[in-house]
Each structure stands twice: as structure tokens, then as C-alpha cells.
């Protein structure tokens, strides 16, 4: 690697850990894992599109540092982020004789991280865990904060555990092979970090615009570092999601409804979040929380990243029932995250009907905007 790395500390007392970002750092993974875990064996858990490109380098580095390293693959995609795959991992770990001196290394996006992290949290009542995120979303969001888990057929992320990693090791060069649509979707969470927490970051994103989709480490590293620092700060102040961490749900109330209505098909999480953020910013303006023009700025930036900003066309009643999902009472309040302006968010208790007032015309009955000009 040679080049200097950047690092962000997640302050959680004795469970504190660093997020280290750099270019080409995959080849130095072994030493870093050894330094942070003292493990003698490593279980690298990955998915085929990532493993095929990067697992050999990760294993080589781990072995060079003196660890016994094994590779485990789970099928790609959220449909297999389930207990069956966790059970398969337990079997495979046992077969290799992995004991509590082993570390689980997740190599991949959020799906691999959540699944491997849950296996690490539960196998032998918990092994050390290291995240090596290879998507933008995993780098700035899912690898930080210790949430691990799997889906049930009844819903997403219904089973899980808090299990903080010992280290988050980021090599931005791995993003070169990530499809640009995935990169843009992950960037929506970076935009979110700026929108809720840091107006200066938001302005930097506006200055870079579409260049954020190129993998130019000099531009990308400071931006990713800042987004990681924001997530780290929020998590450090509120590890178990009592209050502040709720702000990270900006854009997510409508996003979850859209994802559910689309049955998780044809739309990436970050794309739904982009739509949800514009909607939430529009509602914030309508409620008099934020100055006029806030939603417009958000929409313009997201559009430059090729992200959709208009809700897909479903009837209002479909949106309402999706918003009411897992609410016991029909009119229970949802802690809706609104903006006070760019860089400042706040929760407001609203009922689904208040979130989506009858004649607000929102979500607008327009088709999701399509991306243009990019492969
Ligand atoms: N734990 C948390 O706090 C948290 C937060 C947000 C999301 N999540 C979870 O994260 C998951 C979504 O994560 P994601 O968006 O990273 O999706 P993902 O892990 O499914 O990855 C997206 C796709 O990109 C491929 N890929 C990953 N890295 C690549 C690379 N460098 N080159 C080429 N292809 C690559 C994957 O194989 C996959 O096909 C969901 O399961 C979600 O529930 C968890
Ligand atoms: Zn999200």
C-alpha cells in the first residue's frame, strides 16, 4: 500500500475500535487483524462476486501474518441472509476446528457483514470480529455500529445481535469493481450523513457531484472518512438506539414502505432512501421545520448521482398500510425524522396519516425517475 491511511475511532469504552481507510490496504489486512485481535486463526466469510476478486489477497495477507486462514462462501444476495446459511457456517467452522482463538473476517457488502457478524456473535458464544467492507454502503454504514443479523421469511433483520467489530478495515480500491449503480446507492447514505449532521460535508458533496461515482481515492477517502466519523459519533453517543441513533433513519420511513411495496425488487436500499429523504425534506418544509429550498438542494444532489427522487406510483392507501406495518395501533405515532435545515435533523412524532396527508399529493403519482447517461 505505501500510501498513508486515515482512521476514525469508534469510542465505546473498552469495546472501542478503529475504522481504517486507505487504498490498497487489503494486502496489509493480516498484520492489522493480528494487532487488534491476537487471534491465531481467521475465518474469512465472503460472497462469490467479492471472494473471486479479493479473497486470495486477504488470505495471503492473513497467512503471512501467521494466522491459519480459511475461506467460507455464502451465496450472494439478501435472500440468503438467513439462519440456514448461519447454520452452514457453524458446521463449516466446526469442521475446520475453529475455537475461541479464531476471528471472523467479513469480506463483502452489508449482506456478508450482517451474516458473518451474526455467526461471529453466536458461534461459541462469540468470537472476535473484523469487518472488511467492499461496498460504499457497508463502508459508511453497515460495518459500523455493531448491528448484525439475518432475515426471516416474515421480514428483514428480525433476528440479530449487537456485536461490535474489533476493527473496520477499508480498502477503497475494492470499489472499482462495484457496479456504479451500487456505488450511487451507497452514496445516498453519505448524502444522508451530511443532511442530518454536517452542512460542510453536504457542501463538499455538492461541489463534487457526479465525480463521487468515480473511484478517485484522493476525492473519495476524505468524504468516506467524514461519513464514517458521523456514524461513529452517533453510535458512540447512542450504542443501543435509544434516541440519537434514530436520526440515522432520516429518509428511511418512506424508504422501508417503498421497499416493501416493491417487494424488495427492482430498487436498491439507497435508491429508496434517496426518494425517502427528498420526501422527508419536503414534509419538513411543509411543517415549517426547515427553510424553503432545503428539499430542492437535496433533490438536485441526489439527481446528479443518478438516484431516483420521486416515489413510485402506488395508491396512498397502499403507502399508509406499508407505513403502519408493525405498528400495533392503527394511529400509533412514528418517530419521523425531519430536517431543521441542511446539517440538522430532529424527530417528530407523526401518525402515518400525518406523514402522508390526504391532499398533499405526496408521494406524487409519478414514475420513479430513471437514471440517465450512465452504464
Ligand atoms: N448492520 C447494519 O447496521 C446495517 C445497516 C444498513 C444495511 N444493512 C444491511 O446491509 C445489506 C445491504 O448491504 P449492501 O448494500 O452492501 O449490499 P450487498 O452486501 O448485498 O452487496 C451488493 C452487491 O454488490 C456485490 N459486491 C460487494 N462488494 C463488491 C465489490 N467490491 N465488487 C463487486 N461486487 C461487489 C455483492 O456481491 C452484491 O451482489 C442488507 O442486508 C442490509 O440489511 C445493515
Ligand atoms: Zn439505510
Would you write up a description of this structure?
The chain has helices spanning 29-37, 48-64, 83-95, 110-122, 136-142, 180-197, 199-208, 217-237, 252-261, 269-286, 294-304, 316-324, 352-355, and strands spanning 6-10, 17-22, 41-46, 68-73, 102-108, 128-133, 147-152, 155-162, 167-171, 334-341, 344-350. The chain has 375 residues and is of the alpha/beta class. The protein folds into 2 domains: 6-178, Rossmann fold (3-Layer(aba) Sandwich), CATH 3.40.50.1970; 190-360, Dehydroquinate synthase-like, alpha domain, CATH 1.20.1090. Strand 10 and strand 11 form a beta hairpin. The radius of gyration is 20 Å and the shape is globular. The two termini are 30 Å apart. Mean pLDDT is 93; it is low at 365-375. Bound molecules: nicotinamide-adenine-dinucleotide and zinc ion. Nicotinamide-adenine-dinucleotide (NAD) binds at residues 47, 49-50, 76, 78, 81, 108-112, 114, 134-135, 137-138, 141-142, 145, 147, 156-157, 174-175, 177-178, 182, 269.
Estimate the strand proportion: 15-25%
Low-confidence stretches: 365-375
The largest sheet is: 7 strands, mixed
Return the string of H and E elements. Answer: EEHEHEHEHEHEEEHHHHHHHEEH
Radius of gyration: 20 Å
Oligomer: single chain
The number of distinct helices, counting runs of at least 4 residues, comes to 13
Cα separation of the termini: 30 Å
CATH architecture of the largest domain: 3-Layer(aba) Sandwich
**What is the highest CATH level, the class of the largest domain?**
Alpha Beta
The main sheet orders its strands as: 1-2-9-6-5-3-4
Give the rounded overall mean pLDDT.
Answer: 93
Bound molecules: nicotinamide-adenine-dinucleotide, zinc ion
Amino acid at each position: 500500500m505505501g500510501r498513508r491511511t486515515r482512521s476514525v475511532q469508534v469510542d465505546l469504552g473498552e469495546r472501542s475500535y478503529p475504522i481504517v481507510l486507505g487504498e490498497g490496504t487489503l494486502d496489509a489486512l493480516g498484520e492489522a487483524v493480528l494487532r487488534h485481535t491476537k487471534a491465531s486463526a481467521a475465518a474469512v466469510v465472503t460472497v462469490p462476486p467479492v471472494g473471486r476478486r479479493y479473497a486470495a489477497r486477504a488470505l495471503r495477507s492473513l497467512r503471512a501474518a501467521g494466522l491459519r486462514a480459511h475461506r467460507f462462501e455464502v451465496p450472494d444476495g439478501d435472500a440468503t441472509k438467513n439462519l440456514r446459511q448461519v447454520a452452514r457456517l457453524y458446521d463449516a467452522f466446526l469442521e475446520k476446528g475453529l475455537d475461541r482463538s479464531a476471528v471472523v473476517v467479513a469480506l463483502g457488502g452489508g449482506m456478508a457483514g450482517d451474516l458473518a457478524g451474526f455467526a461471529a456473535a453466536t458461534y461459541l458464544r462469540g468470537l472476535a470480529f473484523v469487518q472488511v467492507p467492499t461496498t460504499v454502503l457497508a463502508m459508511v454504514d453497515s460495518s459500523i455500529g455493531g448491528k448484525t443479523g439475518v432475515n426471516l421469511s416474515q421480514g428483514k433483520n428480525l433476528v440479530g445481535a449487537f456485536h461490535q467489530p474489533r476493527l473496520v478495515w477499508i480498502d477503497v480500491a475494492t470499489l472499482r469493481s462495484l457496479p456504479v449503480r451500487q456505488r450511487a446507492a451507497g452514496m445516498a447514505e453519505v448524502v444522508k450523513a451530511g443532511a442530518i449532521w454536517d452542512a460542510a460535508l453536504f457542501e463538499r458533496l455538492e461541489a463534487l457531484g457526479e465525480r463521487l461515482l468515480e473511484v478517485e481515492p484522493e476525492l473519495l477517502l476524505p468524504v468516506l472518512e467524514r461519513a464514517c466519523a458521523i456514524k461513529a459519533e452517533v453510535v458512540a453517543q447512542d450504542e443501543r438506539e435509544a434516541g440519537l441513533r434514530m436520526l440515522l433513519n432520516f429518509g428511511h420511513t418512506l424508504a422501508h414502505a417503498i421497499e416493501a411495496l416493491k417487494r424488495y425488487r427492482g430498487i436498491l436500499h439507497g435508491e429508496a432512501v434517496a426518494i425517502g429523504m427528498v420526501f422527508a425534506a419536503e414534509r419538513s418544509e411543509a411543517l415549517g421545520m426547515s427553510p424553503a429550498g432545503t428539499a430542492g438542494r437535496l433533490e438536485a444532489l441526489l439527481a446528479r448521482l443518478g438516484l431516483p427522487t420521486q416515489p413510485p406510483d402506488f395508491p396512498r392507501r397502499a403507502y399508509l398500510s406499508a407505513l403502519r406495518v408493525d405498528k400495533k395501533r392503527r394511529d400509533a405515532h412514528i418517530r419521523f425524522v425531519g430536517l431543521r435545515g441542511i446539517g440538522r435533523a430532529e424527530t417528530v412524532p407523526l401518525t402515518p396519516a400525518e406523514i402522508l396527508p390526504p391532499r398533499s399529493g405526496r408521494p406524487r403519482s409519478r414514475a420513479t425517475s430513471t437514471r440517465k447517461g450512465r452504464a
